[in-house]
Amino acid sequence: MTTPDLEKGDAPSLTSVVIETVHSNTFPDALIASQAELTCVKQAAPLPETSSSKIYGFLRWKVFNVYRKMFTIVLLGNLAALVVFLYQLKDNKAVVTFDNAATAASANFCLSLLMRNEHVVNFIFRAACILPHWVPLAIRRRVAKVYSYGGIHSGCSVSGTIWYITFSFLVAFQNNLEGAAGVALAMSTSMTLFLLVLILIFAYPTMRARMHNHFETTHRYGGWSAIALLWGQTMILVYVKAQDANQTFHAILIRTPGFWCLVVMTFLLIYPWTRLRLRPCQVEPLSAHAARLHFRYREVSTCMAVRLTDSPLRETHAFATIPNYEEDEKGYSVLISNAGDWTKKIINSRPKHIYIKGAPTIGVMRVALMFKKVLIVATGSGIGPSMSLMQAHPDYPMRLLWSTKNPLTTYGNGVLRTVFRADPNAMVIDTQKTGRPDMVGLAYALYVQSECEAVIVISNPALTKEVVFGLERRGVPAFGPIFDS
Hints:
Mean pLDDT: 89
Largest sheet: 7 strands, antiparallel
Structural class: alpha/beta
Oligomer: single chain
Number of strands: 13
């Protein structure tokens, strides 16, 4: 059994159905892939066996992925510096001071926060995505892993904590403060160390996945508290140092590297709040499971995300933006699905206004523009980030594989029209009719048949890792979100 090749015009009647669908409010069942079609697609390009062992594949693509490589490089670099630093105790004790350890800790924390700043992230993505298509694929596929920058953030966070532990020991032995100042220094150091360790515990991937609300709370309030304590600690140490050196407080302060790191860190924390705005929105209910929020106050670039909240001090949630078509009015939309208490509340309450915090941030889907032709693999509401590319670049060479339950009932005609406008041959799977498909096998088959250069996967964490891992083991350039925040 063979499947019609729509790109070669083997099924003109179906193509005409697609064209009519794009310009109408109806959606025929003929465009939903049947179980027989899924089987034929997989048979046309069977999933090959991997040439390497499972252990090698696991180590190569999971344990030592780009994110962990970045983390390891940062951590090992800091550990090497720490060993050299402590080795100086043997010959040059003047170098091994709590001041220098504090500087190293502050520098790491500062870089960690920089790697989460929206404009820094956007700069990194834009710098990577300027590579033209004539650059060899071997280079572009490696640069496209730019979204793994979070490894630097986590590596600096862990390294900064290690340096702070070193600082804590050194300040205990080298500092002779007594009285109220000594007590304040000891308490601030202990509390800061406790908060840093607590943040790392809840940021561990397993803990973050199981207790995400606790992760957000400790990251937000624990981080704010730690920086406030570091300010107090720095002021105490600078005051004492000024007294000992018989110099003015500000003269010592401006020569303290940790002070300038704290200035930058404080700015990075405050900046997103300066862009907090209550924006009007129009909620388009799609079903009991999904809704689309429309905003008219500005335009957004391709594949960016905004952080939404109805309670800024408690929680924020990042959602991919879907730019309006060029022929439509200014604005963008956000697709949300019922994935928790907050999204369920927004879908049911249909707010007329909602807070948007910070600047729009480029997401992983942007790397699709680095390739001549891409296959987008999405499940459920993962179609939202995919639509960002589809509506910003409706004529971009792409294929789409989307698997979800009741696509028409859940997401409506508008979403499906966007899908088939971007890819008239899109493979849309209704899992209620076919069951859960073999996404790795289907993705590989479409990748081969469509002659795409890369595959972008937007799904839940488990399936994203499964598909990306399954394709990378077979030499396919595959990319998907890291889920590290």
